[in-house]
TrEMBL record:
GO terms for molecular function: DNA binding. SUPFAM superfamilies: lambda repressor-like DNA-binding domains. This is Transcriptional regulator. It holds the Pfam family HTH_31.
């Protein structure tokens, strides 16, 4: 494919490649020179420039560093990822990063906002072994976990309410040191002045009002938004007629769950092997 055949308007992938090529040519750099600056081969960059290969988050960040473009390429990459199966997720991440309050309920796995890098790596590498994602996509998932957690330490920080189904802490992910570090992370999270951590025990049974993971955001203007995922797609909902009942169910879940003190005790006992 030559320059004439590359249409930036044909797809977000082509637009990314066209921007990469344009900025490179403006600086009179060859693909080899840009490759040296970014840590990629000229063949790889040529495939990205012509839209034959999808850029990764790592490549987008390296491009921003090489060209001094702030986060232009990273934002373009995130926009491009909106076309992924979980199409609501990139948009949700943007809202999560500025939410005043975050309420989340998770089943079976520690949520990304609370995962340690080691825990996230085990999950990502497992997905690679199953053939569900590529090694580069695994790197992107791990990087995204770190990016999302930065939202918890911004000024002012959001209020974060987390309810974990007991399965989240009973399910062992990784070796003993990974499990121990993840438990330590949960206990550290519970100590923060702007967080609440609770466990929904198995014996709640039918009293548990939510059966699937869900997140409810309160935005700075006090509007509400919910996010939930199926196996193939994320669903972002701003309609008060459906979000308010979700918020009510979440409050009911908190009422039926263990207190934070009892939850911390359960996690600590599991960490010590006394439960």
């Amino acid at each position: 494919m030559n320059i004439k055949e590359l249409d930036p308007d044909s797809s977000p992938q082509a637009a990314f490649g066209a921007r990469l090529r344009r900025l490179r040519e403006e600086r009179a750099w060859t693909q080899d020179e840009l490759g040296t600056r970014m840590g990629y081969s000229s063949t790889h960059l040529s495939s990205v420039e012509t839209g034959r290969k999808l850029p990764t988050l790592r490549l987008a960040r390296r491009a921003d560093l090489a060209f001094g473009t702030g986060d232009v390429f990273e934002r373009e990459w995130r926009e491009m990822r909106r076309g992924s199966p979980l199409e609501g997720f990139p948009e949700y991440i943007e809202h999560e990063g500025r939410a005043a309050e975050v309420r989340l309920y998770e089943v079976g796995v520690i949520p990304g906002l609370l995962q340690t890098p080691e825990y996230a790596t085990v999950l990502a590498e497992s997905a690679v072994k199953r053939g569900a994602i590529t090694a580069e996509q695994a790197d992107e998932r791990i990087a995204l976990v770190t990016d999302r957690q930065a939202a918890l330490i911004r000024t002012p920080p959001p209020l974060v309410f987390v309810v974990l189904d007991e399965s989240c802490i009973r399910r062992r992910i990784g070796e003993a040191n990974t499990v121990d570090a993840q438990f330590a992370r949960l206990l550290e999270f519970a100590e923060q002045p702007t967080t609440v951590l609770q466990v929904a025990p198995f014996d709640m049974g039918a009293r548990r009002p939510l059966n699937l993971p869900v997140t409810v955001l309160t935005l700075p203007d006090r509007s509400l938004m919910s996010y939930a995922e199926s196996s193939q797609q994320g669903h972002l909902d701003r309609e008060s007629t459906s979000v308010l009942p979700m918020l009510t169910a979440y409050h009911q879940l908190q009422t039926e769950s263990l207190s934070q003190a009892a939850s911390v005790t359960m996690i600590d006992q599991l960490r010590k092997g006394t439960l």
